[in-house]
Amino acid sequence: MSIRNTLFAVAFGLVSLTAAQAEGLRPIEAKSIDLGGISGVAYYTVERDGFRVVATLAQGETGTPFRVVSLLAPGQRLLLSTPKPAGVIEISREGDSVLVRKPSTASN
Predict the structure, then answer these.
(1) Which of 102, 93, 98 is nearest to 26 (CA)?
(2) Is the dihedral of CA 101, 105, 106, 108 positive or negative?
(3) Is the pLDDT of residue 92 over 60?
């Protein structure tokens, strides 16, 4: 099975995010991401220096997948965004929790 097919199989098996609602994420648990035309999954692992967040995304069904990796300390966040109005996802670390949400207003 190709990486692309695996990505979509995982994405279809997950519950999608709703606007302005934060959802907790557990280590290694994948969460689907929809940025309006670009979609994929995100997960995190607990590392010695912080929580390593990995998001794998692709445009449409034929786009080349790409990966974004960030190491989050408590209080830090990662914004993934596209020019589309609904195309913003915030992944934040609050203590020992990681939250994924679509903010109601985009901030930089």
Answers:
(1) 98
(2) negative
(3) yes
